[in-house]
């Protein structure tokens, strides 16, 4: 099989291979007119980080580490990626580019995401989950351009000169900014290591004359036609993430315009997490379950692991026999399992052995409604026409807000907003994000037979436009027993469907068009932004 | 004594003189289908892991496990990966094929063609218009044609009553029946009478043009559902004697259903994996294909107001509480201040029933028992798939031929086997008692 070569200088680096830095600063701006937006793009375009930039940096860091340089002495460059909303493209006279994806064209609306659409909560206060009330995005906090700055430390400071130059452009208005940063223990706010299961991507990029695979290979044998990077990390064709890239062997990619080529669709969601409620509710539900199921070992910690499908350490329930929850296996082993059939023993190229794991078709070990099983049924055919790996996303999210202090539950800091800045790249939002989010997580029955529950961690269930209790069935030897989670612990409080163009496209969009555009209308307001 | 109920336990015969006989005969027909499939497995030397509730009772109160799939045809998604408009438009068109001939002495000059909907995921639909030509409702059906043939046979008056209720006008029996005898050729190429003049014609124009009343695609039958569940109990191995797990490979290798669908490979994989190790499986009574759910959260008015839970989606036949919908429609509820042309689906204007079919989850219900059957050894592939030479095994439309077909009669020039590892090279060892089936057995591909 001949793998495709991608243009590493053209594709933005958070798409592939992903920034994976300790801090990301998200900034959303609106432009008063076309000229302002073009000027903003021109200001940023030379600073946008490419795939090649990221890979080059990683190679350098690896070499420095190998030579004994301490982590705190490693270079910490500022990286930047940008994405445009549909309104941004329209402002640039490139509204037709939105045809690249139907969902992008429609926008992040409740009928696509399953988000609550009731404006008020039962107590009369504004419903934060309704798009009208969002912190960012939605009809009242719309923006044209999302900037994603990344660094390992001091990202805001590092970005300040560029940011000041941007704000100095007449007509550019700040809509939103938020700092995302990894929590001290590398987990998300509920305490779980995140981002363990992200698909790999076929293909290579040329960096400084040398071909570098996008996803490293470890010698995992092909299985049922599926190639792997790490064990359990399927390789997916880049056309599932990059517009115009090959979607299969012998494919030359879809015919798209130069502006669309090498771009990607970005789903941004600001997901607020209620840590206190999550812990309190899981303890309470676990007590009910323990009594009803006659299983005294079922406590809050175990129930949280069942909701996620992994222990906080990342150790999957499906490999529970291989390592204790608190002392997980090496990360390379953490995805080596299937639900339908047993994963075989493996010996990798470097001699590392990875023990196999039995399957769990019925969901006795890892419940069908566990988050990781809901969004990725792996080797079980779903209700969707694609293989589940082709519905997957390149997730690049990062937590926002301070870590919850379980030792001081009533502290002022614990009252601050916290959650996840969910960022995910894909080629087709309706076949990827919306399948995982709207079709599967928000469903009692899907994606596979006998699911028997919503995604209790993240899925949404509505009644009269408001979050409503969610059911799930715990399957044991005695059969299924129903339970209910009364509250949602994750609430969407912002978001947008965006397009992350290629770097050449950003530069092209930054140029005034010929014939010259009409004079900007100074009175034209950006959507939903008061000047 | 156990009896199979009509689909969704809907008793159309209730209070009619025909009731007892009709229900008895329906149960007998279904029981016979199960027996036929079990016998076919036994005839191949397979110890059947497929059973009938008529022979083995399930524990009291046992409910079936739902096996879901999406209602929109996957084959059309594969055919039009980059052209959604064309995909939706094609889903609304009719296919046609030769059913047989009316004059055995001049078969070529007396061909009888049928038309059918191209919607092949056990869900078919049609937009019904009002007198002004505006779309009044999108109607969906999951009803197998066999049940309607049964009604026609035991109670033609009821058939006419039901048609009248569903299409809104008096229907004559002559509109629903064959107007001449239909012959087909048997395996020896000899003409055999297939349908008599006056027999119910499941592809009748009232069903096609004014319905839908029930499923019309030749593969959308209850017989096919039973055949699929039975055949999928056979474990399959590839050329290297490895058990085949992956859904599309299993569908290519086996002799059930169509690997291009969402339904068949999904159902087949679940059945196959469930029985592995010796668990027996059956289709839960009442046996049928069902509309399980519709994602109402995706429909709004053009102003963005959610229409969920406001009476737009209705199960009009079946048991909605048990998630056993046979017939459903999307139409404005009483008092609605907008019409269907103002409805949006995932924020796109509603212009096609296919947009709604994408939001429909279909289901069949299966149940298992441990009957102490010792699982038979896995068998080699009965079939293999073919695809265009430059196709991608994940996304190409497949043809299917017997596993041992030569390239001339099989994939042919310009086509290749997407999964050569399943059937070739020939395995060096094959137990003598294992026979390789040729082609697809059962009724999925044809009329009963």
What does this structure look like?
The complex is a heterodimer of chains A (531) and B (448). With 531 residues, chain A is an alpha+beta fold. Chain A is 20% helix and 20% strand. Chain A is built from eleven helices and 21 strands. In chain A, the strands form seven sheets. In chain A, strands 4, 11, 14, 15, 16 and 21 form a six-stranded mixed beta sheet that branches. A four-stranded antiparallel beta sheet of chain A has the order 3-5-2-6. In chain A, a hairpin with a 2-residue loop joins strand 17 (462-463) and strand 18. In chain A, helix 7 packs across helix 8. Chain B is α+β, with helices and mostly antiparallel strands. Chain B contains eleven helices and 18 strands. In chain B, strands 1, 8, 9 and 15 form a four-stranded antiparallel beta sheet that branches. In chain B, helix 1 (19-43) crosses helix 4 and helix 4 crosses helix 5. The relative contact order of chain B is 0.17. Residues 426-448 of chain B have low confidence and may be disordered. At the A-B interface, helix 4, helix 5, helix 10 and strand 17 of A face strand 1, helix 2, helix 8, helix 9 and strand 15 of B.
- The helix-and-strand class of chain A reads alpha+beta
Cα-atom radius of gyration of chain A: 23 Å
For the secondary structure, the number of strands of chain A is 21
**In total, how many beta strands of chain B?**
18
Strand content of chain B: 15-25%
Mean pLDDT over the residues of chain A: 93
* Helical content of chain B (DSSP H or I, runs of 4+): 10-25%
